[in-house]
Amino acid sequence: MQLFLLFILMLVSSFAEVLSIGAVLPFIAMLTSPEKLFYHPLFKSFVKTFEIHSPNEIILPLTIVFIVVVIIAGFLRLLFGWLSSRLTSASGSELSSEVFKRVLYQPYIVHITKNSSEIINTLSHKVDGIVFGVILTTFTLVNSIILVISVVTSLLLIQPQIAVYSMLIFGISYSVIAWFVRKRLIRNSLNIVTNQAKTIKVIQESLGGVRDMILDGNQELYAKYYKEADFSLRRSSALNSYISLFPKYTMETLGMVVIAILAFYLTIQSGSIQKVLPILGAIGFGSQRILPAIQQIYNSWVSISGNYHQLTDVLTILSYPIPKPKKDIPSLKFNQSIKLINLSFRYKDQGPVILDNINMCISKGDRIGFIGSTGAGKSTLLDIIMGLLYSYEGNIIIDNITLTNESMRAWQNNIAHVPQFIFLADATIAENIAFGIPKEQIDYDKVKEVSSIAKVSDFVENYVTGYETIVGERGINLSGGQRQRIGIARALYKNASVLILDEATSALDNITEKEVMNGIMSLNRNLTLLIIAHRLSSLQDCDYIIEIIDGTIKKHELSKVL
Description:
Layout: H1 2-32, H2 34-38, H3 44-49, H4 59-104, H5 108-113, H6 116-158, H7 160-208, H8 210-216, H9 219-270, H10 273-306, H11 308-318, E1 337-345, E2 355-363, E3 367-371, H12 378-385, E4 393-398, E5 401-402, H13 408-412, E6 415-418, H14 429-433, H15 444-453, H16 457-460, H17 480-493, E7 498-502, H18 510-521, E8 528-532, E9 544-549, E10 552-557, H19 558-561
Parallel strand pairs: 3-8, 3-9, 6-7, 7-8
Antiparallel strand pairs: 1-2, 1-4, 4-5, 9-10
Helix pairs in contact: 1-4, 1-6, 1-10, 4-6, 6-7, 6-10, 6-11, 7-9, 7-10, 9-10, 15-17
């Protein structure tokens, strides 16, 4: 509806432009020969209405009418600019939000195979390129096309032969320029997209590994990488800007030459400059409107072409499937067992087999340890159990119910996960423990309860602000062990029936690890524990150990492993 109303405004604005151009002819004629208008049949009613008695008296009211028409046309242009910018910002916000939403809803395997710098680049640069370089530009393009058609129509009524020749000259000139620069614009577009991602990647890697960078003295190397990518990016952007402006000065010069030739031609043909002055004035006024409009059409085309790759990348993300929102997720309670039946997995169709024909049964309340060499498939197996990786062969059965994509979200409500590397938001300790819950809804009694089990309370008491202490970006204000304990407390806060620890205690010292694991193991047997660890001391209270060897499993009695 808003686009339709904006289109109506474009038509009204263009009509106002036509009126302002059409008013030039009688306005200049009035200034040069007021008596002709005074006695003209079309102005009889005007003269009678305003009680004008002499030719000179017609000058003031017609001047006022001309000024009013020009002011209205200018006001409509301003109104169009304001409304189009408002609509562009609203469209851009919806577009950016939709892109971000679709990225968040993609399967886990998409996230682990895609560089985060590409996603950040899409949300920060590519969407802006589309908003300002395509959406807003398209509004301007349509408005300029309508304006050019309206102005040309007016000039055709005034002097058809000259209007046709002028349009051919300017139209062919812009078309030739566009034909020569089109491929360069596409190349620049690709270069801009590529180097935007590179600059973000360099920033992420250098700041993420700032400790090693300082120790190794690699600041100059990363500064060089950034400068190379940034220079290439800005050079392509500057070239696109030049390409868009290049015809403007050429066409303005050509326009002045064309008007001068027309003035000479019409004067020779009529024998009097006074006779052709109104026509020249109308053509000059029309050119003053039409040349910027043609330039805007060209600029719009340059902008859209220059953002070609941004547009295709964003459209690709917008084509990602997104699950239909479900208000009520069906419950899938875990009361008996998790069965893996003939489960096999590989990350790519032609890639190596990671898990091969896995069969196992995990009963509710089991404490199971997983061991195996690096890359054996331990984390992959637990990712599949958590429903993070879908494209497996075989079945996962929860209490005699085969797990499907539709029931996956319900199953995930039963699971809490503590990875080896804990993500912490730049927020309070309490907010990081109750991660994803609005601050006003946090149960602080529960926060303190799980903090006691995870030994978070041991160091929180040292802070004056307690659980309201800000942890800093990625938990920079905390030690590795403190971050790990917050991660464990976060998992316990979820009150899940299955707790998965993936090297969760690797950053803890032996004493703290033992205290944390004792606290977790002391929880009632309604909680099922699946633990990946390299230190066998972390698994000493497990019921049994699963060893993964070359994608297959071997069950061990605990005593034999320890």
